[in-house]
Every structure is written in structure tokens, then in C-alpha cells.
Amino acid sequence: MAIAVLQPLKRQPITERPGLLIKPEMLDWLQQAVDGPTEENAKTPAPPVDKPWDSPLLKSCPVVDRGLQQRLVAMPLQLSRINAAPTNYGERVHLDAQGQRIDPTPAVIVLHETVYSLGSAINTFTTPHPNDADQASYHTLVGQKGEIVQVVDPSKRAYGAGHSAFDGRWVFTSKHFSGSLNNFALHVSLETPPDGATSGQQHSGYTPAQYDALSRVLADWMVRYKIEPHAITTHRHVDLGNARSDPRSFDWSALQTRLTALGLVC
Length: 266
Ligand SMILES: [Zn+2]
Hints:
Layout lengths: L26 H9 L30 H8 L5 E3 L7 E3 L16 E6 L4 H9 L13 E3 L5 E3 L5 E3 L26 E6 L17 H18 L6 E3 H4 L13 H10 L5
Parallel strand pairs: 1-5, 3-7, 3-8, 4-7
Antiparallel strand pairs: 2-6, 4-5
């Protein structure tokens, strides 16, 4: 299993992306992205047909835990702000590579994990990376103790996913790179526990403090950008290269009980 989660292959040239599984039916679309618009392919390539997102948040309605509810409602959104290096994120764009108008409003939230420590992730994002292949960032990190660290302002485009799409939607921001959801996505990453710094399929999971803090971050984004619970998804689901599996060992019920207590689900 590949878990190079901190190198999301934001916008590598198609021919240089290691491990990319290019399906025959995708080649025309990808070639259009490389060649740019011609009379024959002036439209934005359509994303590959993918399986629909079946949100675990919507499968049931848990009983609201009043104690949890009181605690979360009273919990302030305490952010530490650290600026990612300017090479590692960009502006949300209003025109795609073909010059067509697109809506950059955040419409999907992608969950990730850091694999290594919070400090390691911060170091990666604050280090300038001149090469496209090394440029990566999330908007927000959530540490094991519930620390919330904003690395990229939500108004900017974090480079959290590479070749990716959600609900049949992606954006080509450059004719040199493949389609991605970064232009309309918010990315949040959970600090992986120490036993997860391996290529294993699972680890010991995330702390209650992390789920509390994550729900607080998501509540802020859901209200601010009118994002429905259905549009909270994973890097594993949106990745079209079949190379990402994060966040591993994620407890959807822990998030569901919290978002329900906050009145955002059910
Ligand atoms: Zn990821």
C-alpha cells in the first residue's frame, strides 16, 4: 500500500507521475489536458466515471448525547495559524485551463492523515518546494491532543489531492496537469498515531480530542460554505490514481455522533 500521504502529487505532469494507473478510456481526456484546447476538444475533459460516494454519516441517526452536545457547543474554535510556504499552495481560480468560468467556492471536504507527526507535517508545508511534484499542503491539521493548526487559509487552494474528482466534478487549472478537485475543496488532516508511521492497512486510530476538534473545524466550514454532510469524504475515495488510502482506521461513528450533537447531521 502506498501511503506517501504528504506528497499528494498535486499537479505533476501526466507522463512523470509515478504509479499513476492510466486506464485506456482516460487517455483521451488526459491528452486533451496536455495538448490544450483545439477545435475538436475545446471543452473541459469530463472526469472519469467513478463509483458514487456512499456517505457513512448518512446511514443512521444516533441518539444525541446531551453531555457531548454541551461540551462541543461550548468549545471555541481555537486555531493556531502557521503559513505554508507560498510554493505549496495557490489561489482558487475562476477560469479553467480552457478559459471556461468555474465556481471556486469550497464544496467538498476531504479527510486525510499525516502518517508522521504533526511537527513533521508542519515542517513539510512550511518548507519551500520549487519542484511541482514536491508541493503539498492541507488547509488544517488536527493534532492528537486536539490542536487545530491552520496552514492554508480556506480562501486559498491547498494542494491536498492530485489526480482526483468528487461526484463527477474536477477542474483543470493548467493544460499541463491532470484534473483535480483542489480548486473547490477543503482539506483537513488528522495526525497519525505513532504506530501508524508504517505502510500497514490500519493503526490504533485517532483520539477523542481529535474527533472533537475535527467536528469543530467541520462545523465551521459546513456553516460558512453551506456544505452538506454528504460532501465530507476521504482522500481514498477522491483519488483517481488508486494510490491513496487515507485516512486509515477512521471511526465514522465518532464523527457522526459529534456532528449530530452539533445539529449538522440528521
Ligand atoms: Zn491524503
